[in-house]
## 1
Amino acid sequence: MQQIYVAAKNNEGNGQQSLVQQSAVKTKNDGMEELKKKLAKKEKLRKDFETSLQKLQEKMQQGQNNNDTRKAQKIISRKIEDFKLEEASIASNILQQQQQQQQQQQQQQSAAATTKEENATMIAPEAKNTAAQHASLEVKLPPVEPPVEPPVESPVEEKNEWVERISTKQKMAMKKKKKKKKREEEGEEFYFNQRSINILEGLTLYHNVISSTFEKELITFVEDAIVDGQKGNLLCNTFMQSTYTDHVEKTKGKGRLVLQYGSFYDYANHEICPESLVQEMPPIFVKLIDQLIEKRSLPRDVRPDTAIVNVYRIGDNIPPHVDHTDYPRPFSTLSLLSTAEMKFGEFMRPKGKGLFDAPCSKTLPTRSLLVLQGYGANITKHCIPRVSERRISITLRKMPKWAADRTNQYRTRAMSEKEQKKEAKIQNVRELVVEKNRAATKKEEKHGGSGKSYVSSSSSSSSSSSQQRQQRQQQQQQQGQRTTRNRLLTGIDYALFCNSPFDEEMLSGRKTIETRGYALAPELTNVKIAIIRCSGKAKRENRKPKKVVGWIIFQSSKKYKDEQSWKNDFDKHGVPAGHPEYGWNGRPKYGWSVSSTGRTKELEVPCTEQYGKTSFRKLCFL
């Protein structure tokens, strides 16, 4: 009876355990099947993306290689990488579950073996006393129940769970580090859809492109250059102060401090001016460009050779604009000293006091590089609203080929003229010394003494001076047009840029009033001013080189009150009211009355320095 009772209890316990185990195995099998289905689905999607990537690469090889195709290629390749990572994680989960199932099966087998041994030990002593048990059948034996042990969680499982938690934390930290490193290396791309167009297409932001120590070096260099520029120690237009106008309140602000290296950009006329010389690129900027190219933040084939440094004081801003289209893309801007907000939009409205209303904005942290190309650089405008902290930005661009060639020509010419000027000064000093020697010899001859030695020295010095005179004459003959230009422009300190054919109208006398959007400065009235002919806003290939064609003297300046007064002087200025560029547009118009003009033969434009935010230039003969 005891054997039967123990067997029944064991069967009952085994039955309950088997039901629980069967349900657990069933749920685990269902989870495994779901994971396998998910894995198959991901593999199918990845294969579809790989086929589409192959088709796209074939199109690019056939010649359809533009920004859209390159962008699509980048997106598809990233998707494929994401699918591969997801497949690997799912496969690892499946493998872990299979290992857990094997461990559970082994534990069940070992538990079954132990229960069999325990049953055998309980039944063996009772089998020896079978006769006594049969004799005392009437005695009721107490029910013997097997000891129920409380379920104890194995320390190994706890350890495994803790290890899994640590590994997940480490994985999350590794993912964050990888994402940060990827953002620093590959850059952060921007998206903002407006009318189903990504207006920020082509913009990439790179974080921490330079070290903090190198940032300090750049800041100290800029600060020293600003001090030198304010003292007048820099070449021509290297340093300038750019003013801005508040379009809402009609007030002028103090504006940014600007340093230009490599080539000069005219903010007033929005054009590149190779004839206005600036300092060459300093070594610290060359080092900066090398570092950015090594980090692959900038491409090697569009290496920058010109830089504009903007120093923002508290309250300064830069209005909405699109950088000149002659500059090759991409170009970049480096932010130093403090973070700033840059706003983007095809259309932006001023809100007053250096603020602008734009559809989207991005934050530019310190030591970050914003690279601009594509739609975001050519069509979308960008601006920096009023800043609350001092800020420095360095814009790096590559000069177009025509501007680089002409800048080199003007630079070599300026250096030769500078050397000639130095030689002329030295020659004047020598001539003064010779004349003093002659005067001394004459005195000695009158009063007696060692006159022979003075005469001999003076004769030798006069012979050397005659040789130097001959050399100087030869140099002037070789100079050719430059000397004639300087001779014809003597007494003329200022020049006026004038678009063709209005220059010819003024020189012929048909145009007696020159119309502009600003008043004539009092110091420029009754002064001879050189006329420099420009090609206006013609296409680059159709533009002609700028040349001096004559001179003009303005007598006075007046402001037109309304459109009718403008039309009344049509016979004098010759500009129709409906002209798309120079006609009446509601803004203030001024008329400068011409008193006299004169022609010269066409001369090369000398080096010029910007005179305020006007079309006037100051001539500087180096």
Note: The chain is about 50% helix and 20% strand.
## 2
Amino acid sequence: MQISKFFPAVCAVALSVSFITVRADDNPAQAAARAALEETTRNLDAQQVDKAAVETKAKADQQKAAAELKAKKEAEQKAAEQAQAKAKADKAAAEAKAKQDAAAAKAKADAQKAPDKAQAEAKAKADKAAAEAKAKADQQKAAAELKAKKEAEQKAAEQAQAKAKADKAAAEAKAKQDAAAAKAKADQQKAAAELKAKQQAEQKAAADAKAKQGTPVAQTPTAPATAQAEAKAKADKAAADAKAKQDAAAAKAKADQQKAAADLKARQEAEQAQARAKADKVAAELKAKQEAEVAAAKVQAEAKVKADKAAAEAKAKADQQKTAAELKAKQEAEQKAAEEAQAKAQADKVAAELKAKQEAEVAAAKAQAEAKAKADQAVAEAKATADAEKAAAELKAKQEAEQKAAEEAQAKVQADKVAAELKAKKDAEEATARAQAEADKIAAEAKAAQQSQQPITAETIPTPTTANNAPTTPAPSIAPVQTPAPVAPAVSTPTTNNPPTTPAPSVAPVQTPEPVASAPAPTNALLQPVPPSTSNLNPQPTPAAPAAVQTPAPAASAGESAPAKPEEAKVSYSGKELQMGPIEAPPLPVSSVKQAQLQDLLAKYKADLITAGQYQTERTKILAAP
């Protein structure tokens, strides 16, 4: 399938021609722009008048503040001089009082020092005697205790030695007794063994003799009995001798033991008697020592009584001297107080005179300042009146010039519009002719192709109705072509005094009020207030074309753009004639805190508290904050 290369050009021409219409009268947006321009001019003039009045008032306030500051400084200087004089008088009085107090304290100390010294000396002597007596008594007591302790230790040692000797004697006696008993037993056993051996020897001898004789020897029963009796008698005798020796040894040991016990008892009784004698001696010595201590305490008491008597006499004498010194100090203090009172009265008199002089000077300065302030106020009022008259004259001349310039600009705009419309009409007619020629050409080509039996489709040859119908469906696709930007510069020419730029011929006549009011809003920063939060505070219509002339070029300094201050009640917008409300702006993409900050900043700018540059700087900081 083939498409003709002329098809895009034909479509573009057809769509351009379809939006060409006959120019209508001025739309409401243009009328609102003129009203907004006049309102802005009036506001600027009012601001200039208010600014002159504010400057005059500020100057008067400054002069008044300077006069008050001068009077205040003079009053402070006089008050400082008066305070200095009073401080000197107080210092002199304080020094005199300090000297008086020092003298009285010295006299009192001297009066108290004499009796205290005598009493301290007497007390020191008594304490020294008591300490010496106590030390001597303690020394004697320690010596007696040490002696008694040594004697007790010696007695205990002697008793232990005597006991050891008695124990040793008893042990020796017992040992001797045991040895005698053992010896007697051994002797008895030895005698029995000898007797047995003898019997055996006799029996053996008898046997031997019988063997030698070869004949049996008739043994008489009396022979062995006699031998046994003899052996038994010997054994009994040996046992009796051993027992007698044992009893004698035991008796001797017992006698020795009893003798040792008697000796020990006698020795102990002697030692006890000696200890009792020593104890009596120690008791006698202790009693003598106690009597000596009592005597020393008595002597000490007598010395203390004497010392107390001497201290009382010294104290009485010191009290008498103290009373005399206090009386003398009191008289001197009364005399000094009288002198100080006289000096204070003189100082008060001088202070009163100085104060009266200062008050007179302050009153004179105040009267002079009031007179000067009145004169300055009169001069300021006269100057303010002259400045106001001059500003009113200048404002009136400026208004007339601006009105004349606006009329000339409006006439020029109207002339430019008529010329543009004529040119646009001519261009439209030429475009229509060209489109018709193209259409005829395409039709001829189509006819030629049909005659040559070539397939012709709707895509290659558009129908003539597409070029003839104005409101076709492709209209939204050329919305970018219908930019109303030329309208705003055409109205704002009176502020810049520059020739307006020529708009596109095919766009200006077909602008409807709705797109004209809404399109310029994003293209010019001066058309609406910079902070987006103003839409919530002061609802205003979204059409931005009238707002394009609300802020003249001189209002911004150094290329800075500032928010406009329109009067919302007098601004027109599209749809007002049909009793339709203004279009509300969508909610801002910032927090409520930032909205409040932006609103406060805008209020300060509207009240002329900050400049446009300060406004832009603070607004940037608020929006950049997290």
Note: The first helix runs from residue 7 to 18.
## 3
Amino acid sequence: MSFARLSRVVLAVGVLALLTSLAVPARAATTTYDTNNTPYAGGAINPGDTVLLNDGATVTGDVIDNGTLQWNQTGALTISSTLTGTGTLSLTNTGTLNLAGTTVSANTVVLDMTTDVSAGLLQIRSGNGFLRIGNSGTGLLNVNGGSVASNESFLGSSVGSNGTVTVANGTWAISWHLHVGGSGGGALNVTGGSVSNNAGFLGKSVGSNGTVTVSSGTWANSGSIYVGQGGAGALNLSEGRVTSNQGYLGQLAGSRGGVTVSNGTWSNSGVFYVGVSGTGTLDMSGGSVTNNFASYLGSSAGGSGAATVSGGTWATNGLLIIGQLSVGTLALNGGSVTNTSATLGNGTGSNGTATATSGTWTNSGSLTVGSSGTGTLTMSGGLVTVGGTLSTGTYGTINLNAGGTLQIGVGGTTGVLLGGTGSLTNNGTLVFNRGNASTYSGVLSGSGAVVKRGAGTFTLSGASSLSGPTTIEQGTLVIANAAALSASSITPLAGGTLSLPPNLQASLGGLNPNAGGLVDVGTGMVTVAQGLTPAALVTAILTGRGDGSWNGTSGITSSAAATDVASGILRAVGWLDNGDGSVSAAFAAPGDTNIDWQVDVVDALNFVTLGKFDTGLPATWLEGDFNYDGLVDILDALDFFNTGLYDAGNYNAASGSIAAVPEPSVLGLVGIGAGVAGLMAMSRKRAG
């Protein structure tokens, strides 16, 4: 063979060998162990390779799993040797695999690998061993149909490590604590199934980071939850259920704990702390958080706690303290917050702020704004209800702004505004709602509205400058001060009554007496500054007059007149057009044309000289229409005479006093009679 030919052969063989090595990669190997091929002596599983352990297979040596170790048995197997590596451990059958080999410390199993439990039960040292998912590297545990049983467990145990567990189906039962982010980074995702443990720690140590996300299924803590104990923690609840004893968000100094709830429920049977010595936040846009004892926003010096509720329900079956010894903030932008009593700024140096723009905050007990610290309550929307006493301390401020509603009482026997004597600027809506009698003697100012609810009698006895409307929806509102609502327009609705105490002459900014409710002037007088026409006033009086005995259930009446009429004494409700846009209605006797509570010569002159007697023309009370038939005639004259009050002094003496009643002036009565006779003669002459 020539040298040239030999060279070509050698070159061809080399190229063939090279192409062969490039075109045929190494095949992934699967080695199966079972009853006929056992034990598996351990060793290294290379990336891409699989060791399959079927029924009957055992393991006798340490395993370095950088590929896949698939356990596929229906019985029970304990692996006492160590299992390390960065590959995958897979459980695919119904049996029980017990990992008993330890590495870093006694009774501790480390899984710095991916562990898939789609069937069967994975036990860590018979369920009594500690489990570390991500100890010095990265560990993943996926539970999707099977179960895991362990003692205290860590996700991201050491600095720089990361551990993630996802439970989509099946269970993970932890007999002691769960640390999500021990000193490293940890994440627990519950998308179905259940995880149970004693206490749960999210971000346990300084520098750690732990996140739990529950989108379905259950995370049950028989102990407390610490979201950011020393590091950073986050709990995200979008569906499913979380249970715990107590809750701590941002426990130690420098820690951060945040909880976000968009749906689902978190039931906390103990005390709930948002910001202990660290920073804690609760952000709710849906779902519910319930606590069976007190809740604190900013509980210890140096900490801060903030809750933002824009949807869902946060219910505390106990006290809510906003700023216990530090800074606490509640922002109500929707949804519902409920508790018994609450305090804003409880301790010396504390600062508590609550702001409502929408939603409801219901305090079944009392609300104190600035107890020993600084407190601020601002309402620009939504509803804040106080079932007990609303009070302020030295550094307490209440801002009731346009759009905001403050309700005192819930229809029972409690509910007091500022001790019943304090002053409030109301530019929103102030609701009083009690079922029994109560009194407020403080001063109301501002442009806001007042609403009276509840079946009880509520008395306003202070002079106020409030210019907004007052609506009486239920029960009775008593104006016990002439200027209690002198700038407010009052509307009694069906079931509501406006009432005056004896002999009070009250001024009102406005009055709507034809809205279905009742105005009872008693023995007093109301003067309405504007907005009520004489025609509307008379309509209301006719309604309140009823069948003539002043027994109407709406309109304007007088309970005193009704009592007198029932006893055969002529009394009524009189009215005046004051000529300046104002009108008055008052307890009156027929003949008292100018309603000064005495019948005298002025009234006689009005009756005789105003020219309406027997003309058939429409007439007013001032002109002598005392029986509300719209005319002045002999019937009105008889009412005038039959009262027997002419020149007899004040017939409406103050309650408890006895007025001297002189005999009627004979000359006066004769004069009136002559005047009436003359009017009758003139009337007959016109008729002839």
Note: The CA atoms of residues 518 and 554 lie 4 Å apart.
## 4
Amino acid sequence: MARDRDDITRASIGDSQRGRDTGTCVIPTQPTADSERISEPPPLPEDSQADLPPASSSSDLVPGHQTVVQNRRVTNRGGTLIKHLGNSRVPRPVNLRTVEGARSIDEGPRTPVGRYIVGPTLGTGGMGTVRLVRDQDIGRNVAMKTLNPADPDARALMRPLISEAQTTGQLEHPNIIPVYELGVLPDGDVFYTMKAMSGFGLKDVLKGLRRREPKFVKEYTERRLLSIFNQICQAMHYAHSRGVVHRDLKPDNVLLGSYGEVLVMDWGIAYVIGTSDDPLAQPGMVVGTPHYMAPEQARGQIAKLDGRTDIYSLGVILYEMLTLTTPIAEILATKDVPSDLDAHADMALEAVRGMREARRPVDNGRGGRVPDVLADIVTTAMAPRRKARFSTARQLLDRIDEYLEGSAERDRRTLMASSELAVGVQAIDRYRRMRESRARLGRDVALRSRSIHRWDPMSAKRELSDMATRHSHMELQVSQAFSTAVNHFHRVLGLVPDHPQGKAALANLYWQRFCEAESSMHFADMIYFADLVLKFNDPARGPVRAGNGQVTVRSFPEGAEIVLYDISRGLP
């Protein structure tokens, strides 16, 4: 359901504002007219250029750039440094090894433009295109974003693009995409360059986990995802300290590098608190992605937007990391959702606006449950009322850190519990074998006692007495084996209180004792073990399942008339 998470823009202030996606774009550059007029500085002394081959020119090379002959091959050396300093003063960039997974500038047509060589397109959105370009001066690949020249509203979008570059460029943080240059192309189009990353988005990771792809399941554990989330929180805490609200936090806008980098992207609709001239920050304006919007953002309450608005979005991201879905997706899954994108977005917005309490994550999407500590963090971050949320991203970050710091101890205790559980399982096997042996011996004693008469020799009676003694002694051994097994599983729950296998084992052990008491009509034991069964029983997996059952009633004397009432419906 990718389409139900596309960015939307809604305006109640008129049709002059047009909603658009916050995609990006890129275009080549040429030397400006002003740079052509800058005279080249005097050349170096002749002795410093003795080894430099004579310059030559060719009509098929880019004008304005010198060409030198080296090893009988004509090589164009473009770039601003060459333009102003000359070939002799500018060393060639060292060619470092290519990062694994990085896009290559040679994947498609290349166009030399000024200091850049423009390569393949990385992405196209409603506001422009991003292309991979080569910075010839530094010798690195960067991403260049420009407006789409074919867009009839490109001129009107020039100011938002400049604002995006300026805002992002001032947010200097390791977890925010760095901006390198903001400029104008020869044809008048505005562009800016930023870091070109190798890797994939958090969205791709969550999609891979939903599909249970082994690569993602193995690498992106709960601990790894929470570490990524912490870095997102660090970026947002810094941005909020600078007065910037992202307004479109979602997995699509979080890029994961091949070497552990986590970068928050796409600040195109960011809101700078206190500004009044932003066309996307007017009263009633709704921008963002419905699945990740805070209620005040979905209502267009611009005056209420602050860092807590992003904290709500962080809560939704954490919810999705833990459950592999979003709260709004779960709500809409129970409704008849139209295929029309706008209608779907409207339903999502209405669901956000109607939130009265935070949806608590339960199932983790991997066959387990979300830890209560993390569920509490999510519900606080996603509180519909701003005052009930974490006041800063730092507070949210600290809560996750506390959880992660305790995870090492939890892992240790879980490992100890697993070892104790294994010993407990062996104790159960021993207990069951001894019960079976005792039962067989009891049957033998009963059979032998019926065959012994008063006149039989003492040797026969002595053998029966020995068998009865062994049976009594074995009853003590069975009780001891039962107690040993129970103690092992109680130790498991002492290490991990909600350990499902430990609770299930205890419930089954107590259930066996309840059945024994029931068969022998020991009512006191029945009541005692029934309470223990219910204490540790899981209605979905335990020995006592939720659902229909049978009731057997005996009357003394027999033949009594019995009337049963469902007291949940009241007495007649």
Note: Residues 180 and 302 are 31 Å apart (CA to CA).
